[in-house]
Write a structure and sequence with these properties.
A hairpin with a 5-residue loop joins strand 3 and strand 4. Helices cover about 35% and strands about 20% of the residues. The protein is an alpha+beta fold and about 475 residues long. It has 14 helices and 15 strands.
């Protein structure tokens, strides 16, 4: 049956695509920056200017309650500007070539100002296109009223206006302006915006960061060139916040530094799925600086999620906070979701997560080993590394009470690395003493870990009786048969 109903997309869809789409109002900066870098990439490909010519300028003015994001990239030609800036969810960008491709990111600012303006000019054209969104009127139309059945098309006709004016034919740019910014969640706070941008944006490393060249070269050899762009906030050029030294451990606040840079490649079959760089440090504990702690997932050098996104891939989430690094995602089948806080769940995603978890397990073992070497005595280290109680000399029953009653709260004044080492020692000590307490005179029972302590003791008495009644050869045969089938 052919549907003869005229589909109406209600006005509240606009609310979902603006206020409801992103975790934070600050995410609008990321959305407009990713559009800007796509435009700059296109301009570089077309050789409009030398690569170092291009920049993204962000300006916020709390006094006038305005902000703008300007780029001198390719811009939009007159034939495409109107459809590109007004159509919703209709983009001609290629998913495997552009960071933004769904055609909804440009609406990110609509819910946080009175007027949203797009201004663009294209090289060789002597005019610019200006699209104005009356965001204040939109908020009024979204209020509960008798017009609840109004469609998105009807709303857009009322809130959007189009202008054209003269411009120099040599100019090419795109600018987002937000007038009457209504949100007070950090959008106009220069320090808050800077903190957001240095973590989320595709920035270069600071020139003072001595490991900058090492990271770039090692990642390049691994098969990826990290793209970077000149981004300025109120005239100040921004850089990623990584530095040679930093402070670790919530309790002791220990000074630490990068000792080396490690690079790991992840594959899906023959496809290079991602390249990870991470810093080898002393791993004293949680890194205090929230702008650098944790492995950050990046696609096109733009942050996906936040500093805690990788936590769940570690068996102990805290260890992600002990590490500095970036996982650059390359597999074209890894598709970022609309909120840009994770990826769509498909084969490429599950493959990457699997191999990344294996790496996380391996690096966690390294952190533990370093903690043992630094914090444990030779005797305690022997306990942690023991495979069975027989590998440890002088394992005493009286140690058990101490191990059983000790918790992490008993080490409140200790460093995090010391706590990890001591708690691992306590856990292993308890396990070894449990093993010792359940041992019998019969190896066939001791190696059967399915048996409880009570079952072992009962069978030990049974085996004693068998040995009393039968020859050594028959007794051994009966005992092994019973133990094997119990």
């Amino acid at each position: 049956m052919i549907m003869d109903h005229e589909l109406i997309i209600g006005k509240y869809t606009l609310e979902s695509l603006t206020n409801g789409m992103y975790a934070s109002p600050l995410d609008l900066y990321r959305e407009y920056i990713q559009n800007a870098v796509d435009s700059i990439d296109a301009a570089i490909m077309e050789k409009l200017e030398r690569p170092e010519y291009f920049e993204i300028a962000i300006n916020i003015n709390p006094e006038k309650n305005t902000l703008s994001i300007f780029d001198n990239g390719r811009g939009l030609c007159q034939n495409h500007a109107i459809s590109t800036l007004i159509d919703i969810g209709n983009s001609n960008k290629q998913r495997d070539q552009n960071r933004g491709f769904r055609g909804i990111g440009r609406l990110a600012g609509l819910g946080y100002c009175d007027e949203l303006i797009f201004i663009t000019s294209f090289a060789g054209e002597d005019s610019k296109t200006i699209i104005r969104y009356n965001a204040k009127l939109l908020r009024e139309l979204l209020l509960i009223s008798n017009e609840d059945n109004v469609s998105v098309h009807d709303v857009m006709k009322r809130i959007v206006s189009i202008e054209k004016s003269s411009e120099k034919a040599s100019r090419h740019y795109f600018e987002v302006k937000m007038l009457g910014v209504t949100c007070n969640n950090g959008l106009m706070d220069e320090d808050v915006v800077r903190d957001y941008l240095i973590q989320h944006s595709p920035l270069p490393f600071d020139k003072e960061f001595k490991w900058r060249s090492t990271i770039q070269e090692k990642v390049r050899i691994a098969g990826y060139i990290i793209p970077t762009y000149c981004i300025c906030l109120n005239g100040e050029e921004l850089y990623k916040p990584y530095s040679d030294s930093f402070v670790s451990d919530r309790v002791k606040k220990i000074s630490d530094s990068i000792q080396d840079i490690q690079v790991k490649k992840f594959y899906r079959g023959e496809i290079l799925s991602a390249v990870l760089w991470y810093a080898h440090t002393a791993f004293y504990g949680t890194i205090n600086d929230n702008t650098v702690k944790g492995i950050r997932i990046r696609q096109g050098n733009i942050l996906i999620g936040d500093r805690s996104t990788c936590n769940s891939y570690f068996k102990e989430e805290r260890f992600n906070g002990w590490i500095i690094g970036e996982l650059h995602v390359l597999d074209p089948d890894l598709i970022v979701n609309s909120r840009r806080d994770d990826f769509e769940k498909n084969e490429a995603y599950y493959t990457l997560i699997k191999v990344f978890k294996e790496w996380a397990f391996s690096v966690s073992k390294d952190i533990r080993r370093i903690s043992y070497e630094r914090s444990l005595s030779r005797e305690k280290k022997a306990v942690v590394e023991a495979q069975s109680f027989e590998d440890v000399n002088d394992l005493c029953y009286e140690d058990y009470g101490y191990a059983e009653d000790t918790t992490e709260s008993d080490f409140l004044d200790s460093g995090e690395s010391e706590v990890v080492a001591e708690m691992d020692y306590m856990d292993k000590l308890s396990l070894l003493i449990d093993q010792k307490r359940t041992q019998t005179r019969y190896r066939a029972l001791n190696i059967n870990f399915k048996l409880t302590m009570e079952q072992r003791k009962v069978l030990e008495r049974v085996f004693d009786l068998i040995q009393q009644e039968y020859s050594d050869q028959d007794a051994e045969r009966f005992i092994n048969t019973i133990a094997r089938n119990f």
